[in-house]
Design brief:
By secondary structure, the protein is α/β, with parallel strands linked by helices. It is 44% helix and 16% strand. It has a seven-stranded mixed sheet with strand order 1-2-3-4-5-6-7, with helices on both faces. The structure holds adenosine monophosphate and manganese (II) ion (3 copies).
Length: 281
């Protein structure tokens, strides 16, 4: 029997996704997903509603979160899978991250106002009023709605990316602190989309070594839209470091078909999957 399709990286409107958790889980089920994790940025707020929707559809639910962390000046994302929502050490950590996010979005707004002559303060205030987890993607959508860019990608490419007028460097809590908070909540800890960090292969090996030493369990090896070459590289890292392998779409938006729920390559058969470990727990 083949393992069920496990999408362990999904966003709802509790962070920067566009669907509510119940609609998201119904979409995942309709696309053949058998195990689904809700992994909103820096909040577990949607997990109860997602769990209820999964109970109705027969989808196996994994409560999760995607935590922002810093490593050598680089922002990283760490997935906690199988978290116990409400664990004080984790919830305090997440609250701190959301406070950092609000401050950053308001600073980005000011910079956009000063350097790009955009109504940045108003846009940023609107973003913060509309969500508990303000992300740059919310701001990118606001710039699209304003008609200043064609799509979110252009907003990052013209205004929000590194070296651009709306870029504000942020010092996230350390990788060790992120892993500690997730482990306190009983999570299996996975480094999200390692191929996206633009690290040299030596730096990526160092990161993975430190991640494992700090208590990390696995790498996200197969993600929606990635190249077979990146998947190969990550599979090799997982083998060399004795880690688990995770899969997920990183779905946010139903208008973007390449990251639809369940749409990612299967893992090479020799890897030990995070989903198998989570579903026997
Ligand atoms: P933040 O966590 O506030 O830095 O916002 C980053 C979020 O924006 C990510 O989680 C992605 O969902 C999205 N994102 C990042 N880069 C891009 C890009 N180039 N185009 C579209 N969305 C992006
Ligand atoms: Mn996102
Ligand atoms: Mn991410
Ligand atoms: Mn994500």
């Amino acid at each position: 029997m083949t393992a069920p399709l496990a999408d362990l990286h999904l966003h709802s409107h509790h962070s920067d996704g566009l669907l509510d958790p119940a609609a998201l889980m119904r979409l995942a089920a309709s696309r053949g997903v058998g195990v689904a994790a809700l992994t909103d940025h820096d909040t577990t707020g949607g997990c109860a509603a997602a769990a209820a929707a999964c109970a109705e559809t027969g989808l196996r639910f994994v409560p999760g979160v995607e935590v922002s962390a810093g490593w050598q000046g680089q922002s990283l994302h760490v997935l906690g899978l199988g978290v116990a929502p409400g664990t004080p050490a984790l919830e305090t950590h997440l609250e701190n991250l959301r406070t950092l996010r609000r401050t950053r979005i308001m600073e980005i707004g000011e910079r956009l106002e000063r350097r790009a002559h955009l109504p940045g303060r108003e846009l940023a205030a609107g973003v913060c009023a509309g969500t508990e987890v303000p992300t740059r993607l919310h701001l990118a959508r606001a710039l699209v709605a304003l008609g200043r860019v064609r799509d979110e990608g252009e907003a990052f490419g013209k205004f929000l990316g590194r070296g651009l007028p709306g870029h504000v460097p942020i010092e996230w809590p350390s990788l060790e602190a992120a892993i500690g908070a997730l482990r306190a909540a009983g999570a299996t800890v996975v480094l999200a989309h390692p191929h996206r960090y633009k690290l040299s292969s030596g730096a990526l090996r160092r990161l993975v070594g430190e991640f494992r030493a700090a208590g990390g369990d696995g790498l996200e090896v197969s993600v929606g839209g990635m190249s077979p070459r990146d998947l190969d590289r990550l599979a090799t890292l997982v083998r060399n470091h004795g880690l688990l392998a995770s899969t997920g779409s990183d779905f946010h938006d139903p208008a973007l078909p390449w990251s639809a729920p369940g749409r990612f390559a299967r893992l090479p058969a020799d890897l030990v999957s995070v989903a198998a470990r989570l579903t026997v727990l």
